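User: Sequence in, structure out. Go.
Assistant: Echoing your sequence, followed by the structure tokens.
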Amino acid sequence: MRNRVTELFGVEFPIIQAGMVWCSGWKLASAVSNAGGLGLIGAGSMYPDTLQEHLRKCKNATSKPFGVNVPLLYPDIDKLMQIILDEDVKIVFTSAGNPKTWTGVLKEAGVKVAHVVSSQKFAIKSEEAGVDAIVAEGFEAGGHNGREETTTFCLIPAVRDAISLPLIAAGGIHSGRSMLGAMALGADAVQVGSRFAASLESSAHNNYKDSIVEANEGDTILTMKQLTPVRLIKNRFYHKIKEAEDAGASSEDLQLILGRGRAKLGIFEGNLEEGELEIGQVSAYIKDIKAAEEILQEIWVEYVACRKELCSNQH
């Protein structure tokens, strides 16, 4: 398939693997890129030297385009960006911050820049900042989310009406059917997170992957809205936060409970009770762990079949 996103990034399929903390290392990114999608390394959980190592290993593992997701709130952002430029990375997805800060620098170096937003307002600001594409992520998504709590189904058409840039839909997309829905609403491509978190190549702990497969409807929730809203699986850690919030805890109190390294504890180290188990609502419909290439092919084949079926039903 050829469209604005596949041409922008030089990929075969308009399917992007999200750059998720503790899941999206070089193994996952290279596997998705080799399968014809766009793999992203998640820099949000990496020190600068770790990112450099993953970039070099990814280059050795694939000759296809791949990129890096960089949360702009990262404390070592200058060092991360310098490594990205030094290693000649050509695609960067920025999130959690002001796109004006780095877009100009990156584009001057020949980098294609996409920015993740959760509202129409920030999509417009991102286009004004000069990015090449917008990722509009609904609050079904796992990890850190927008405070607006706008669902993907509402967000995509609103953003499509407001911008002229290529649009990538994210949040709640894990299958060909959901991809078709996003494309019908105006997206040029989709970004898939949770489904790839439960892949063989995901760098997450097997306990965490198993918790995705075992999750049922209603097992995830958007919480910690006083700090930064995050969607996670309900566990002992979540209930501590919930009890504190119900008792009127301040942001400082919640920060003390959260501590440091909570997502690493859950996702990377596999502590299912005290860790922060970030995942999307679609975890309820993910029932197996398989190779990233197989996941991408399943999404694409189902997308094509559903589109064909929908078109045939119109006559």
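User: And one key feature?
Assistant: The longest strand covers residues 66-71.
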